[in-house]
Structures are given as structure tokens and as C-alpha cells.
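Postdoc handover notes: sequence design on the structure in folder B. Input C-alpha cells:
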């Protein structure tokens, strides 16, 4: 397989046979195949002690059993969620809690006082109570972090740059009504109004409505208070002009517009500013959660990860708390 040959100046060259080369290549390929099979079938979660771990975010480790217990004690709405959805929400809570630690919110006197009360209660409570109190502190720290980020000072220009559309209020009309027996009476009422007879006199002379005693005033009404298309017709009316609304077993319903809602510019501006603030807070929180995902070491059980679509970092920490 090997053959030594002398060259100039006592240098030697080893000649290797083709059989030897192919043998080495075959051996390397076989070893590579064995390693691939090994890594495909080995359970790293089991080797790393993570088989029963739900997630680890920064300093906090939660097992699958603890996650189940947390969901049970988190209220009615949490119980309605499936495991994956709750895991996704709690994962975000843990991220914000870790953000609170980075912001130093866990060192503020009020939070330190709550932790002291918590530690004192630990001596008297069972495991379930201890877990409940721990979750309370995590959620409290996460809520503090959300407020700290969302309510931070802003420049007026930041608010003005946010374009929002204030939802239009449901249209309303202040109306009066006259109820007459039939179409002939309705035509007589229209004719008398055209001649200048006041609504109050028409109401007193012709109306059979229960509202006759209050001058026919039925207050503020909206589209849902009438049969289809009637309100749209009333919207086109000039004030105090009677028109036929609809006919039913009671008779012919005539209506006149008393007034329309007045648009308050101050209220409109206030509503727009509230929407801008809400959108600014939402954008800040979205940006901060992305920053936390990039800055905080975390690991999520693959079972939960695939179901709640949490993208794990490649450099997630291997150690548990």
C-alpha cells in the first residue's frame, strides 16, 4: 500500500495506493453518516434537563406543570385559551418583566415593599400559593414596564406624525311626529303646512299619536329606530318640514326635523388626540417587545414553540435558574 522512493538530497516521497485513498474516504463517509444518524435521534432536551421545561426567559424558568397551574389560577379568560395561546401571552409577560428588571423597576421602593410582603408570606403558604404570589409579582413588574415604556414623555411632533381617523358618531336627529289615520289626512296636513299653518296647530288638530300631548316631540332618534331607509330620507329634510315616514296598522307616520347634533371642534380634537396617544403607546410597546426578543436570552419548549409561533434565538441560554 505504501512505497518509499529516494529523491534528490535524501528527500523521500511516500506513494499511497488508490485502494488506501478509497479506504480512507469510505471510512470518513461512514463516520459522517453515523454522526448524522446520532444527532437526528438524540434527545437534547432530555440531555439538557429540558424535557419538562416550558420556557426560560432571562432569570425566570417555568416548567410545563407550572405553566398549567399558572393558567388555572389566572382567571376565567385565561382558562378559555388553549395551552399554546396562553403560553404565548405568558411568554410576552415574562419578556416585559425581564424588561422591567433591565429598567431597574424591580428596585423601586414600592415594588421592593411588595417583594418583602411576598417573601414574608412564603413562610406560611403552600406551593400553590407561592406560585400564585410569584406570578403576581411577575405580572406586576411586566405591567410597570409596559406603563414605563408606553407613558414615557414624547415630543408633540411625534404625536402629530401619527395620522388617525376619528370614527364618525352614529347619526341622530331630533324629531317631531304627527300620526294620521290615512293617506288622505296626510295630504291635508301637507297642504295646510304649505299654507303656513304651524306644526303645533297641525299636531293639535290632526295627530293621533301618544306624543301629541308633548307637542309631538319624540326626542333624538337614529336609524335603528325606524324601518329600513326611513331614517336616510329624514336626513335629507330641512328643519320643520313634514314628510311621510312609513305606514303601519296605526296609520301614517309623519315626521319633521327639529335639530341636528352640533359638532364640537374641541371634542373632535380631544378624540383625535386620544387616538393618537393610543397608537403611539401601541407602537412603543411593539418596538420594545422586539428589542427585548433581541436582547433577552430565552428558550421555549419546541412543542409550545411550534404551536404558539414563538421564534427562539439561536443563542438562547442553556442553563436553568
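Designed sequence:
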Amino acid at each position: 500500500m505504501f512505497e518509499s522512493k529516494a529523491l534528490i538530497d535524501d528527500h523521500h516521497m511516500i506513494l499511497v495506493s488508490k485502494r488506501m485513498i478509497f479506504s480512507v474516504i469510505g471510512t470518513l463517509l461512514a463516520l459522517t453518516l453515523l454522526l448524522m444518524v446520532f444527532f437526528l435521534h438524540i434527545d437534547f432536551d432530555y440531555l439538557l434537563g429540558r424535557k419538562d421545561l416550558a420556557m426560560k426567559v432571562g432569570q425566570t424558568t417555568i416548567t410545563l406543570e407550572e405553566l398549567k397551574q399558572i393558567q388555572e389560577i389566572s382567571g376565567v379568560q385565561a382558562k378559555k385559551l388553549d395551552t399554546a395561546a396562553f403560553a404565548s401571552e405568558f411568554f410576552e409577560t415574562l419578556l416585559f418583566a425581564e424588561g422591567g428588571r433591565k429598567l431597574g423597576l424591580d428596585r423601586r421602593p414600592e415594588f421592593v415593599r411588595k417583594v418583602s410582603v411576598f417573601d414574608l408570606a412564603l413562610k406560611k403558604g403552600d406551593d400553590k400559593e407561592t406560585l400564585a404570589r410569584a406570578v403576581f409579582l411577575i405580572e406586576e413588574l411586566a405591567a410597570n414596564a409596559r406603563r414605563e415604556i408606553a407613558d414615557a414623555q414624547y415630543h408633540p411632533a411625534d404625536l402629530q406624525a401619527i395620522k388617525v381617523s376619528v370614527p364618525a358618531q352614529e347619526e341622530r336627529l331630533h324629531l317631531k311626529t304627527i300620526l294620521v289615520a290615512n293617506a288622505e289626512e296626510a295630504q291635508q296636513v301637507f297642504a295646510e303646512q304649505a299654507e303656513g299653518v304651524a306644526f303645533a296647530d297641525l299636531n293639535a288638530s290632526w295627530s293621533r299619536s301618544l306624543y301629541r300631548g308633548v307637542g309631538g316631540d319624540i326626542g333624538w332618534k337614529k336609524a335603528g329606530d325606524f324601518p329600513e331607509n326611513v331614517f336616510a330620507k329624514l336626513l335629507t329634510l330641512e328643519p320643520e318640514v313634514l314628510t311621510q315616514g312609513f305606514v303601519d296598522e296605526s296609520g301614517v307616520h309623519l315626521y319633521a326635523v327639529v335639530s341636528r347634533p352640533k359638532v364640537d371642534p374641541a371634542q373632535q380634537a380631544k378624540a383625535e388626540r386620544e387616538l393618537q396617544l393610543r397608537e403611539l403607546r401601541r407602537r412603543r410597546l411593539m418596538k420594545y417587545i422586539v428589542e427585548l426578543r433581541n436582547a433577552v436570552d430565552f428558550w421555549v419548549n419546541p412543542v409550545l414553540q411550534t404551536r404558539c409561533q414563538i421564534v427562539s434565538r439561536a443563542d438562547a441560554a442553556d442553563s436553568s435558574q
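Context for whoever picks this up: Confidence is low (pLDDT under 50) at residues 4-8, 43-47, 311-321. Don't rerun without checking with the PI first.
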